[in-house]
Design goal:
13 strands; mainly beta; two-stranded antiparallel sheet; about 190 residues
Length: about 190
């Protein structure tokens, strides 16, 4: 589809994004899903952030609330390597956030083209029913927001007692696992 010269991709309710997922787990059949979302910004926050609105879910894979939202998004520096922080650049020019992070709440099955329900990973699904997603984020004068080099993961469940004060708390210390491949494109109708 050809883009109108005036249309620029944005991270707000005005741009529709198409996400293609191929979920993979060793020893199990791959599963694909395609969704269309809008990144609805919660105005007035720094770094920019908001909620993910699911416009279309062709495979019945995404779990949304009654208003159609699933998960949250935020622009950020690398959460795994924060160093001194890029926020200081915002004092001099538009802040640079090289990554878009968001999560999607999911079901443990998808709907095949035949209309049949297909259990994900033989019914084991995704631990905690949440996918964590990261894209490289940049802005282009002509195209607007560019999202590239997508990564998709989930956290295995492994609880450990974290009882420093004797209150009986537990924390999930499970490994972060690569969940497959993801691609995203702005859609201009």
């Amino acid at each position: 589809m050809k883009r109108n010269a005036k249309q620029k991709a944005t991270l707000d309710e005005f741009t529709l994004w198409r996400i293609s997922l191929r979920l993979q787990k060793e020893g199990f059949k791959d599963s694909s899903a395609s969704i269309r979302v809008r990144f609805v910004e919660a105005r007035g926050y720094e770094p920019p952030q908001g909620r993910v609105f699911v416009e279309d879910d062709y495979n019945g894979f995404i779990n949304t609330d009654d208003n159609g939202y699933s998960g949250a998004w935020s622009l950020s520096e690398d959460k795994n390597d924060r160093k001194d922080g890029l926020w200081v650049w915002g004092l001099f020019e538009e802040p640079k956030y090289p990554f878009l992070y968001f999560s999607l709440d999911v079901f443990n099955s998808t709907i095949a083209a035949s209309g049949e329900e297909e259990p994900l990973f033989d019914g084991l699904g995704i631990p905690n029913n949440r996918l964590n997603i990261r894209f490289s984020h940049s802005r282009d004068q002509e195209e607007g927001v560019k999202l590239e080099s997508g990564e998709i993961s989930y956290q295995e469940i492994e609880y450990m007692k974290a009882d420093l004060l004797g209150v009986g708390g537990e924390v999930n210390v499970g490994d972060i696992v690569d969940a497959g491949k993801i691609d995203i494109r702005a859609v201009f109708d």
